[in-house]
Every structure is written in structure tokens, then in C-alpha cells.
Amino acid sequence: MGAMTETMRRGAASAASSASPGEAPSVIPDKLPFARAASIIAVILLAGALFGYDQGVISGALIGIKKAFDVGHVALEIVTSWVTLGAMFGSLAGGYFADLFGRKRTLLAAAALFIIGALVQSLAPNVPILVFGRLVAGFGVGVAAVAAPLYAAELAPAAQRGRFVSSYQLAITVGIFVAYFVNQALAGPDGWRTMLGVAAVPGALLALAVLIAVESPRWFAKVGRREDALRTLVALGAEHDAEARLAAIAKSLRAEVKARSWGEVFAPRWRTPLMIGVGLAVLQQLTGINAIIYYSNSIFAAAGYATPAEQAQATTWGIGAVNVLSTFIAIAFIDGLGRRPLLIAGLVGMALSLAVVGFAFWQSATEGRLGSSAGVITLIALVAFIISFAFSAGPVTWTVINEIYPNEIRGRAVAVATAVNWGAAFLVSAFFLSLVHAIGQAYTFWLFAAFCVVGLIWVIVAVPETRGRSLEEIEASWRQAPGGS
Ligand code: BGC
Question: Which ligand 1 atom lies nearest to the CA of residue 172?
Fold first, then answer.
């Protein structure tokens, strides 16, 4: 965790404020009372894990849903992908809610949406109601995905901000893994209802953690609730200097007010960083990551894993556990080696492994039967893909998105890139099965491989290295660039 240094801190801070994290005054005491710190961390981890759970659970549920409602691939795509559609809208609304109602109430609403969404899905008598449940849960995912990192960044002591916020990212991968694990345990014709319903339990735990945790003093200050802000700062351990810390919050809030309009995000002088952030957000999804996260059981089924139990096992360990563990590679090397080497190596790895998956499917198709080795080759290649993604496009995308924008537009630009990321996730998950239907498994994976190659060339040409540079240096480089101000 020691390697989660400057970059992560910067990224984290950018979620919290438009004030430069380098200048951000340390408003939260360095050492939080243990119970306070534990409840804040619990909120962050549960929010991340729920996001991941909602992402991962569908791969195990699809086969049962298909049987229960006797539906085709288009309905299955809608069932799968509408979580991302809900998340796209939820992420746009989340920041607004968090400012209007407070971080805690927004996270409580997200927890309620998770619980309602989970129960609706689990009890759904037909596909439209199931889809409605997915949309509701997805909206909760989007709201939490904005509110939780924001809450994390605002409640973290400055020196630990990176850890607080990046633990959210790690929690997503853990959530996916847990979902796969539950899928495996419940594999069977009717297991899908429980798989989807189980999300209500961590949803309730999240609500409980939010109720115990404190509200952000920064939000209290923002809405003029001075006494509440002071009381919270004292509860967080600032018995002696709560006034001074509140003054520091007020100062950074004044800097935030200077931030300009939404139109500024699209001003020509910021076109280069906007393109880089949005480009990475799209590229991350065009690698096909969520086609694999969502449809891995079906992919393994097509690759010759005959029983649901075998498919679930390959998914849990080959995809879920590998995803969690490989995220630590990025945490260890992102600041030392830099973003570009990780991205370049990862894209090469993803392109090659996707090409191999495509080849395994192509061979099976041309032989007219599944070669005995196709399943093993597919598993090895998909593991290689997940490792390559988890140390590169996964975490590097979010790091760069959070550090590449100038101060004055950062909050809004990050929201745009995040919504674009979910939009792209929606498109990929919405059309994956149709694509497989139209051109076959082999060409679908080769298409993702081709996107990785195009992305690789674009990264080499257009994405600058940001390792070790302060946010101010990065911002100055855009101003100096042709067309900059
Ligand atoms: C992506 C998600 C993806 C996850 C997989 C994240 O960085 O944004 O779309 O499901 O990684 O671990």
C-alpha cells in the first residue's frame, strides 16, 4: 500500500474539491479515532463492494434467467446492460444529490436503491420487472460511485487520502469476486433469484455503516451549517483546533466557487486533456472487459465447460480472484514505472490474449466441434487478459482521468469522462451477444483485440506520461501547447 503515493492522493483529492490537492489544507486530523475511521472505511468498502457485486453477479445469473423466462439473447443483453445504463444516469445525478442533500443522505439513498433493486430482481415475475430492478440498482451504483469517492476524499486525513479512495477501486474488484463466489455456491436452475437478492444484505450493511458514520464537515460548511461542521470536526479528533480547520475548509470552498461553467469543460484550450480522459474512458471499455466480466460463464460454456459448476469455478478463480490480485501490481508500479509503460504493456497483453481467445473459438468452429484443448486455452488466455487489464487500463484510466484536467474544470470533466465510461460499458454489454450472434465468438474477440491495437497506437502517440509531475505542471503543459491559453 506504501506505493499508493502522490498520484493516488492527487486523484483522490480531485474528487473532493476543485482546489489543488497540493495546496489543499489538511482539514481532517491526521489520526482519526479508531471507531470513526472504521465506520468511514466501512462505508467506502461496502459502497465499492456493492458496485462490484452488481457487476459480477449477472454472469452467474444469466443461464438461470434464460431458462426461467425462456428468452433470447436480446432480452439477456437488456437484463445485463441496463445496470450500466442506470449507473450512467445515477453518476450524473449523484454529484448533484450529494451537494443538495449531503453525502450521508445520498449514500443512504444509494443503499436503499441497492436494496429495492435487489429485491425487485430477486422476486421478478417477468423480464420487464427484472429489468426495472436492474435499472434501479444501477442508478444506485452510479449515485454511490460518485458519492462514495467524494465522501472518502473529504473524510480522509490528507496523508491517507490515496488509500481511502483507492480502497474503493479495490473494493469493486473484491465485490466482483464475491459475486462470482456466491454464483458458484448457488449454481443451479433457481439459484439466480438468491444471487440477485443477496445484494440486499450488503446494501443493508451499507445503510447501517452510513448511519453510524459522520457527515462530511466540508458539506456542512458548504451549506452554511457551521455548528454542525465544528461538532463533526471535534468528533473526528480536532478538539483543540476545530475553528482553524473550519477556516481552512472555508478557504478552499472559496477557491471552488471560482470554478467556471460546464461550457468551460469543452473549451478549445482544454480539448487535448478532454480527449485524453474521454479517450481512455472509451478505450477501457472497448477492450471488452465488461463483456468478459458479465458474460464469462457463457463464454466458458461456449468454450466447452459443460456444467454450470465448472463454468462458475473458472469464472470465480480465473477472472474474479485474478482481477483482485493483479490490481496490486498497478498499485505497486504506477508511481515508479509510470502510467504509459503499464498501459502499453497491458494493451499488448490484452491484444494478444484476445487474439488467442478468438483463435480458440475459430478453431472449434472450423473443426465443427469443440477441440478438447479449447476450454483450457480460453481459460489461460482470459486469465492473461484479466491480468493485463487489472494492472493497466483498469486503474490507470481512473488515475489519469483524475489528474489530467486543470483545476478549474476537474470536477465536471471527471463527471463527463465517468458518464462516457458507463455509456461505453453499456454499449459493449448491450451488444456483445448480438455481435456474437452476428459474426461469431472468434470475430467478436478479434474485434476487441483490434480495438486494443488501435488504442495502443493512440496511447503511444497521444497520451503523455504524468508520473511524478505535479498537477500544476500538467496544467501548465496544456496552456503551453499550441491552441492553449
Ligand atoms: C472498470 C469497470 C470494470 C472493472 C473491472 C473498472 O476499472 O471501470 O467497468 O468492470 O474495472 O475490474
Answer: 12
How far, in Å, from the CA of 425 to the mean position of ligand 1?
A: 9
Q: Which atom of ligand 1 is nearest to the CA of 173?
A: 12
At which residue does the C-alpha cell 469493486 appear?
A: 172
478: closest CA among 401, 405, 408? Answer: 405
Ligand 1 pocket list (CB less than 6 A): 55, 172-173, 176, 284, 289-290, 293, 323, 394, 421, 425
Looking at residue 73, its pLDDT comes to: 86
- Alpha-carbon 299 to chain mean position: 22
Closest C-alpha to ligand 1, atom 8: 394
Using one digit for the tens of pLDDT, what is the confidence trace for 207-245?
A: 999 999 899 888 898 888 989 988 988 888 878 888 888
pLDDT at 10: 40
pLDDT one-digit tens code per residue, 307-366: 878 888 888 999 999 999 998 888 788 888 888 999 999 999 999 999 999 998 888 777
Give CA torsion, residues 10, 11, 12, 16, to 10 deg: 90
Q: For residues 15 and 9, what is the distance between their CA atoms, to the nearest angstrom?
A: 10
Helical H segments across 287-373, by residue range: 289-302, 308-313, 322-333, 339-367
- The DSSP element (H or E) to which 438 belongs, if any, is helix 410-462
